[in-house]
C-alpha cells in the first residue's frame, strides 16, 4: 500500500521540490513493501523533467505507467475529470464532482458551539464546530479493486429505489467519496484512462480542455435527480491512541413498513493507524439513540465480518454499513476494541454523529447502472 510513502514521505518531497523541479520519479506497487522503499528513494533522490505515476496491474506483478504527475492543489478544488491516485488506498480514480462538507474534528477544534449535540450518556462530551472541507465523488478504476480488497471494501453508493419490494437496497459499485488531501493528481493522454462501466456514460474526452475529460449531460442530470441520497454533508473525526476514526453518514430515504415509517442511513467509516505499533480490530460497540426515545446497544466481533490489522504497511481500513430508525432523526456513537501484539486491549472512540432525515426523494427513474440489489 502506498499510504506510508505518499502520506509521510512523498507529499513532503513534492512540497519541497515542486517549485524548483518539474517532478520526481514515482513507482507505486500496491502490494510490495520493497517497492515502497524504492519509492521513498526515488522521491528523494531523482529530479527529472517528468514524473510518471506507476500503478500495478491486477495480478500485482508488473508496474504500469498511468500518467504524468501534477502538483497537488493547496488552494481551490479539483475539477470534474481530474485523474488521481488515492494517497491512502492507492487506487486510480477520476473526479465526478465536489461536495462541500462540514468537518467536525474532535482532535483539533475547540469551540463554543456544539453541533451536532451529543445525546445524554454519550462518552467524553466535547464541543466541536464544523469547518468547511472539500470532498469528491469519484469513480474507482475496476482494475485496482483487487489491490484494495484487504484494506477496504470496494466502495459503493447504496440507496433505496422506488420498487415493489420495500426492503430492496441497491448499490452502484465503484463510487467513493475522497477528501481533498487524499487526491494525488496526474494527467494522461489515454482517452479512456479509467475502467468503469459508468466512465463513458458520464464523461467524454475533449483535448482542448484541462483536464481533458468533461461531463456529459447524463452526469449532470444524474447528480441533480439523485442529489438527496448522494449528498455528503457532515464528516466526523476523532483520534484515540494514534488510531483515527473518520465517519461519514448518508441519509438514504424512508420506507413504510407495517403501518409505520422506517428511515435508513448508510455510514462510511475509515480507521487509520497514525502510529508505528501493529494493532488488530477485535470488537465493535455501538450505541444508537432514536428521536422516538429508544437507546439500542450493539456489540459484535470485528466489522463487516472482518478483523482488520492496521500496520505501517497497511495502516487504514474502510467499510460501510447501514442503520434504520423508526424516527426521522437520531444519534450514533461507540467504540472499537483493538488488540496490541502483546495481547493487551484498548478502546478507540467512534465520534458521535447525527442521523438526520431529508425530504424523501428516493431515486425513481434515472438510474445509470450498473447497480445490484442487496436485499
TrEMBL record:
Main subcellular localisation: mitochondrion
Subcellular location(s) per record: Mitochondrion matrix; Nucleus
Keywords carried by this UniProt record: DNA damage, DNA repair, Mitochondrion, Nucleus, Phosphoprotein, Transit peptide
Matching SMART domains: YccV-like
Family annotation (PROSITE patterns): APAG (PS51087)
GO molecular function terms listed in the Swiss-Prot or TrEMBL record: DNA binding
Pfam families noted in UniProt: DUF525, YccV-like
Gene Ontology BP annotations: DNA repair; error-free translesion synthesis
Coiled-coil parts of chain: none
UniProt entry tagged with the keyword DNA damage: yes
Record InterPro entries: ApaG_domain, ApaG_sf, Hemimethylated_DNA-bd_dom, Hemimethylated_DNA-bd_sf
GO CC annotations on file: mitochondrial nucleoid; nucleus
Residue ranges of domain ApaG in the record: 237-362
Subunit-level organization: Interacts with PCNA and POLD2. Interacts with SSBP1. Interacts with PRIMPOL; leading to enhance DNA polymerase activity of PRIMPOL. Interacts with POLH. Interacts with POLD1; leading to stimulate DNA polymerase activity of POLD1.
Xref: PANTHER family: F-BOX ONLY PROTEIN 3, POLYMERASE DELTA-INTERACTING PROTEIN 2
Function: Involved in DNA damage tolerance by regulating translesion synthesis (TLS) of templates carrying DNA damage lesions such as 8oxoG and abasic sites. May act by stimulating activity of DNA polymerases involved in TLS, such as PRIMPOL and polymerase delta (POLD1).
Protein name (record): Polymerase delta-interacting protein 2
Organism: Salmo salar (Atlantic salmon)
Amino acid at each position: 500500500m502506498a499510504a506510508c510513502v505518499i502520506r509521510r514521505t512523498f507529499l513532503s518531497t513534492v512540497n519541497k521540490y515542486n517549485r524548483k523541479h518539474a517532478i520526481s520519479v514515482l513507482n507505486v506497487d500496491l502490494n510490495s513493501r520493497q517497492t515502497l522503499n524504492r519509492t521513498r528513494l526515488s522521491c528523494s533522490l531523482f529530479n527529472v523533467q517528468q514524473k510518471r505515476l506507476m500503478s500495478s496491474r491486477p495480478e500485482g506483478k508488473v508496474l504500469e505507467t498511468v500518467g504524468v504527475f501534477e502538483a497537488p492543489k493547496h488552494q481551490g478544488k479539483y475539477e470534474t475529470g481530474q485523474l488521481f491516485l488515492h494517497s491512502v488506498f492507492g487506487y486510480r480514480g477520476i473526479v465526478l464532482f465536489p461536495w462541500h462538507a462540514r468537518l467536525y474534528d474532535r482532535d483539533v477544534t475547540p469551540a463554543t458551539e456544539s453541533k451536532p449535540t451529543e445525546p445524554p450518556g454519550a462518552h467524553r462530551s466535547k464541543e466541536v464546530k464544523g469547518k468547511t472541507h472539500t470532498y469528491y465523488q469519484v469513480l474507482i478504476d475496476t482494475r485496482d479493486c483487487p489491490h484494495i480488497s484487504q484494506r477496504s471494501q470496494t466502495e459503493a453508493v447504496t440507496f433505496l429505489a422506488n420498487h415493489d419490494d420495500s426492503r430492496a437496497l441497491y448499490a452502484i459499485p465503484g463510487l467513493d467519496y475522497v477528501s481533498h488531501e487524499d487526491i494525488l493528481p496526474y494527467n494522461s493522454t489515454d482517452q479512456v484512462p479509467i475502467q468503469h462501466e459508468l466512465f463513458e456514460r458520464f464523461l467524454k474526452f475533449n483535448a482542448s480542455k484541462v483536464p481533458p475529460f468533461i461531463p456529459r449531460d447524463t452526469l449532470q442530470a444524474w447528480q441533480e435527480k439523485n442529489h438527496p441520497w448522494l449528498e455528503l454533508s457532515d464528516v466526523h473525526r476523532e483520534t484515540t491512541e494514534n488510531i483515527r476514526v473518520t465517519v461519514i453518514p448518508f441519509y438514504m430515504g424512508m420506507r413504510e413498513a407495517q403501518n409505520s415509517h422506517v428511515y435508513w442511513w448508510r455510514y462510511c467509516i475509515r480507521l487509520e493507524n497514525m502510529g508505528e505499533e501493529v494493532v488488530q480490530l477485535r470488537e465493535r460497540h455501538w450505541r444508537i439513540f432514536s428521536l422516538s426515545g429508544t437507546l439500542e446497544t450493539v456489540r459484535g466481533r470485528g466489522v463487516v465480518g472482518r478483523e482488520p490489522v492496521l500496520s505501517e504497511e497497511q495502516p487504514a481500513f474502510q467499510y460501510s454499513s447501514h442503520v434504520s430508525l423508526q424516527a426521522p432523526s437520531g444519534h450514533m456513537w461507540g467504540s472499537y476494541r483493538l488488540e496490541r501484539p502483546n495481547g493487551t486491549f484498548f478502546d478507540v472512540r467512534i465520534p458521535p454523529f447525527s442521523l438526520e432525515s431529508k425530504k424523501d426523494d428516493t431515486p425513481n427513474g434515472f438510474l445509470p447502472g450498473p447497480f445490484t440489489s442487496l436485499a
